[in-house]
UniProtKB/TrEMBL annotation:
Keyword Signal among record annotations: yes
Protein name: Coiled-coil domain-containing protein 134
InterPro entries: CC134 (IPR026321)
Signal peptide: 1-29
Basic residues composition-biased segments: 202-224
Domain of life: Eukaryota
Protein keywords: Signal
Annotated spans, Disordered: 195-232
Length: 232
């Protein structure tokens, strides 16, 4: 029988492995769909569709990190995730630079190059999910790491120029850049997941409850004299 501590440890290991798998495996079109051959869909359009599917899985993973264990365990998990994520991106960057790929170039047919691209796109997006949904934990590690900051600057530019990040993913990229201050924050920028925002929301809810209560009391008070008048 496993005791609770070793069970928790096993769960943690499995969860970490799943995340590492998610970071290092990418969406790849092994075989082109018939649509592409007929020219109905460009390889870029095809990739975007797969990217969207992978994004959905990543978002679920990040949401489960949000809900995972205690703060200390979440912190440990996020730290490990970030280390792996930036390592993969960094290697992909070296490869892409070596191969001379520039974002905005036609979407490559060569699957080795596509694999490198996917790693940058998908892991940058995943970093976006992480920093937006677990801001305090991510900042506590990321803000101290100059290499990661430089690398993310490159990622932001690379992804923005790629044509892959539109609509939802474009918004994610834009919010991520504001959260880590790669670009200036818009006046209306807030992250609802920071501890500060959460506390503010709690206070507001508390305040609203009070307001409702006092309103009720006032109404009752107003009613009061009327009743007395009737009695009189
Ligand atoms: C970089 O390229 C090498 C050689 O093609 C490959 O083995 C490696 O997996 C690539 N790394 C990444 C992160 O794409
Ligand atoms: C794909 O690109 C890599 C890196 O430039 C190259 O080594 C490889 O031979 C290419 N593969 C094909 C099938 O062209
Ligand atoms: C924030 O302001 C910018 C322009 O300054 C605007 O484009 C954006 O839609 C606003 N966002 C929200 C959530 O109101």
């Amino acid at each position: 029988m496993m005791d609770e501590a070793s069970l928790r440890c096993a769960v943690f290991r499995t969860f970490s492995l799943l995340i590492i798998l998610l970071i290092s495996s990418v969406t790849l079109t092994k075989k082109e769909s018939p649509d592409v051959y007929k020219g109905k869909r460009s390889p870029l359009e095809m990739y975007k569709k797969l990217f969207q599917e992978h994004r959905a899985i990543q978002l679920e993973a990040v949401k489960s990190i949000q809900n995972y264990g205690e703060y200390k365990q979440r912190h440990q998990l996020v730290k490990m995730t970030l280390e792996k994520l930036f390592k993969v991106i960094s290697e992909a960057k070296v490869n892409l630079t070596l191969w001379g790929y520039i974002p905005g170039d036609p979407f490559p047919e060569n699957t080795t190059i596509r694999d490198g691209l996917s790693k940058v796109f998908e892991n940058t997006a995943m970093f976006g999910d992480l920093v937006l949904r677990l801001p305090d934990i991510v900042h506590s590690t990321y803000d101290k790491n100059k290499d990661w900051q430089l690398l993310l600057g490159w990622c932001y530019w690379f992804c923005k120029e790629s044509g892959v990040f539109d609509e939802t993913n474009g918004r994610l990229l834009h919010l991520m850049a504001q959260e880590v201050k790669l670009i200036e924050r818009e006046e209306n920028y807030t992250n609802p997941f920071t501890l500060e925002s959460q506390l503010k929301q709690q206070k507001q809810r508390h305040g609203e409850k009070k307001e409702i209560k006092t309103k009720k009391k006032k109404k009752e008070r107003k009613k009061g004299p009327q009743i007395t008048r009737v009695e009189l």
